[in-house]
Each structure stands twice: as structure tokens, then as C-alpha cells.
Amino acid sequence: MADLLDRHEGGAERPIGYPDYGRFVDVVQMDKFRKELCEAEEQGAIKITRDRGLKSDQIKHVRLEEPALLYAMLKRRPVGELTDEATGRLLQGLELPVQFEGSLATLRASWSRGREWQGFSLGDVDRLRPAFVMAQAILERRHAGLDYRTFSRRFSGDSKALERLEGAVVRILGGALELPPTARPRDALRTLGLEKFAPPMLLSGRLDLDTAELSAAAPLYFGIPPAEATRLRFRGQPRYVLTIENFASFHRHVAEADPQRSGVTIYVGGYPSLATQGALKALAASLPADVPFFHWSDIDPDGVWIFRTIESSLARELRPHLMSVAIAKKLGKPPAERVRQPSDVGSSAISDLAAYLRHPGANWLEQEELDPTPPEV
């Protein structure tokens, strides 16, 4: 009977249960089973259907008729009541922004069906509450300038809470902020400026760092902390600036497509962190307006998101490189799973590709499938 209620809470209107007579220990246990079911039927909570012929004394199956009566018999509270109570405790003292209502509705829908939400059940309210607190702090940009653990300690009282709750935090923020469609939670938070340490930004080109003449040493590429980007000096005006999502494509481009270092090529580390976005903005501000900026990513929703993120950071025109509808149609393939489509990007150099990728039959393409070529300046 408890199983009937579980399935009812899971969405079945009038679930049916079949007895497993082979699992009864003895006749005494079987008689007790029949007696309890008959009492429930007498009260109108369930409907018993018996077998025919020689097995007419056996119960064939049981159908739930009146859930409220069965709840009372089993002295069990409906999951809807428990959900209301749990969410009340979850949000006690919090004034959540309207942007979180979608995530909260999804949570309530899961709990009201007896399911977990992001791995958290009705009994996990105290463990989940810090996720809403931290998500609100991030939405209000109170995380600015804080590393992962300092932020976690300041807003949850536990320096490792964010690491345990990052999936839930990102899911809550998903209704309020545009995050990378398929990124891992930690990568998504990195794009908002929450990271343990900013990864180095790799650069190739005729560049110096303050008085250090790196251009004379002519390394294939070198790495600096993003915050040090203001110390970069250009040895002559580059023909272009190209940011690249994938490390293999970055390495091949600087080695094969631009061995003379006529341009500046930058590896942004996949999803560009907030620190990397700031560094790109500083570089863009230091170059003349006639130096074109390009970006090369996978042709998929994440690639569109990365392009748009960098485009927004630069405050100048950004052009797609080897990212076009024509290339997708010619060389791409339908994805195994369309996890998420790119949103409407509005007025952008990538808007045509974003619109194409929203079509059900659109092809996707990983940039490693393409040989590097210099941007068309």
C-alpha cells in the first residue's frame, strides 16, 4: 500500500500493485497481508481484484481508489504537504529574486513527485539552503574579487560548501544568467569570476612584457596570469588578434598558420574566465580600431556562447573565424544529443550561425576537425 502511494506521488493517477506470493515467509504472513488489504478495501481506500478458478481465493492485483483514505490508514502525510513544509524551511528569512522562481518551481515539482532535485530530497533542506544563499549573492555580484573558498566561507560559513553545492548553485542561476549550455558547474562559475585561481592566458605574437623583450626570444607562445595583461607591449601593430577556444587548434594555428607571428593569437582556456574576459578587454583598448579581432570556436551552442561572451567583453567588433553556416552544412554532422540550443543573440556577428543552430537538422562541428588558416583581414 505504501508503494501505491509512492507511485501516486510519482504521477500515476490510479496505480495497480501485484502481490509477490513467492516472497512470503509463511502462511501467517500471507494471512496478515490479506487481512490488511481487506480492511483498506472496506474503508474504500483500494479496490481488490481476485483471480479466477482454482485461485479465486488469491488476490490478483490491487488498485488505489482514494489516496486520502490510504494516507490516513498508514498514518502518512501527503508529499504535497511535506513539500510545502520543506520549501518553507528552505526559504525562511530569504527574499529570493524573481529570477529564481523557475528553479524553485522545478524543485517543488520534483519533491512533490517524491523525486530528488539535483541529488537533494525533502530531507536535505538544511544541506541545500546554502546553495540558494550563495546563488543570490552571485546574482547580486557580491562575489566580485573573492576566490572560491573565501566566497564560500563568507556566505555559507563553510569554505568547502560551494564545491559540494556547485551543481545546485549553477542550476539556480540558470534561470537568471546566460551560462555556457553544456559546461560543467565549475567551468560555468569560472565564467562568472568564481575560481580557485585564474588559469594562465596563453599568447603568441610579437609581444613584450614591460621591459622583457619576449619578442626577441620568439617563443612559440607564452603564458601570463590574466591580471598581468596590462603589462603587455606590442612590437609593431599586429595584423589581427585571434582568440581560440581549443588548445590543440591554438597550438596548430601558431605553428602552422602564423609562423611569422604577424598576428596575436590567444588561447582563452575553453570557457573564458572573468579574469580572462577582463584581460581581453584591456588588450582591445590598447590597440588601434583598425586591428580586426576574430574568434574561433566549435560550431555548436557552447561555441556561440563563448563568442558572445568575448564579443561583449571587447566593446568592439568581433568577427567569427572558421565559424559559418556554410562550413557547418558542408563539414559538420548532426549531434548525438541536442542538449540545449543557443538563445537569440540579437545583433551580433554570430547571429546567423546561432539562428541556424536552433534548427532541428543543424550540423555541429568541433574546431579540431578543421585545418588552421589565417583570418581574412
Count every beta strand, where a strand is a DSSP E run of 2 or more residues.
11
Query: What does the radius of gyration come to?
Result: 29 Å
What fraction strand?
5-15%
Q: How many strands, what sense, and barrel or not for the largest sheet?
A: 6 strands, mixed
Question: Can you characterise this structure?
Answer:
With 377 residues, the chain is an alpha/beta fold. 41% of the residues lie in helices and 11% in strands. It is built from 15 helices and 11 strands. A 6-stranded mixed sheet has the order 6-4-9-8-10-11, with helices on both faces. A 3-stranded antiparallel sheet has the order 1-3-2. Strand 2 and strand 3 form a beta hairpin. It is elongated and about 95 Å long. The termini are far apart. The mean pLDDT is 91.
Topology record:
Blueprint lengths: L1 H8 L6 E2 L9 H16 L3 E5 L8 E6 L2 H8 L4 H12 L10 H12 L12 H15 L8 H9 L4 H13 L11 H7 L9 E4 L2 E3 L4 H4 L4 E3 L7 E3 L6 E4 L2 H11 L6 E4 L6 H13 L6 E4 L4 H14 L3 E3 L4 H7 L19 H7 L20
Helix pairs in contact: 4-6, 6-7, 6-8, 8-9, 12-13
